[in-house]
Amino acid sequence: MSFIDDYFLNPMGHYYTLLGVLVYAIIFVIAIYLVYKYILKRFRIAIDYIFILSLVPFIIFGGMTRALRDAEVYKGFLFVSPGIYVTIFFITLISLAFSILLQRKFKIPYWKTMIAIGTALVLLDAGLVALVGIQNWSALYIYPAFFALWAIVFLALHKFYPQYMSNINALALFSQMMDASQSFIGVAFFGYYQQMPIVSVATSFTGAWIIFPIKLLLVFALLWTLDRYSDNIEMNNWIKLAIIILGMPMGARGMSRVAMSV
Questions:
Q1: Number of domains comprising the chain
Q2: Which phi and psi angles does 71 have, rounded to 5°?
Q3: Which residues contact 29 (CB under 8 A, 6 or more apart)?
Q4: What is the span of the domain harbouring residue 248?
Q5: What pTM was computed for the model?
Q6: Out of 109-123, 143-157, 228-242, which region has the weakest mean confidence (pLDDT)?
Q7: What pLDDT is recorded for position 234?
């Protein structure tokens, strides 16, 4: 039990261990495959750009919920990593099932219901953030400014070079730049520190700016490899969704945390 406590239980919500990161990454990859094969395929849901967009509010909700756990609004194992991924997964899955039911009964496109539910959840968390109190108003323009800059970059690349930058690839890269931005801003301007051990070591030698080129190169290489060597478009998109899930919530969490000064 000491081994499990030291590497998995005690670090929850405070820091990451290298072994913990590796184990969680393996579990995440397996879960992604099982959901794709036994849930989405069974319900005949196309893993396309519309599907991914319908999940974006839930992804943002996950990041804001994690920040509210940092502020002790939400409490318990289900609201810290990795438990929060399970919590958000089931909330999203139930919402998707309800949306599919409405589509079958009333011909309402499932993605419209998903966006409505997800947006309501985001607004709920935004209200809770306001209730806790905005202590650092500068976060509400510094973070969006960085996010908007990256959005413009990838939208422009998609518009002028769609053969190299699909809409899903642009969204995946943007989500990871949200994560990189929140890390950079938190470390460089607000006195936060990196919880990921590998990234922490890299930034200690070069400064927080190194996060941007590292993420850009690694994520772009992965996306290029998927597009170049795999013909399974839906599976590729599912992996790209995983990339989005690993980036976008961190951006929302970072902005919310700094705004609440927690």
A1: 1
A2: -85, 5
A3: 242
A4: 2-260
A5: 0.85
A6: 228-242
A7: 87
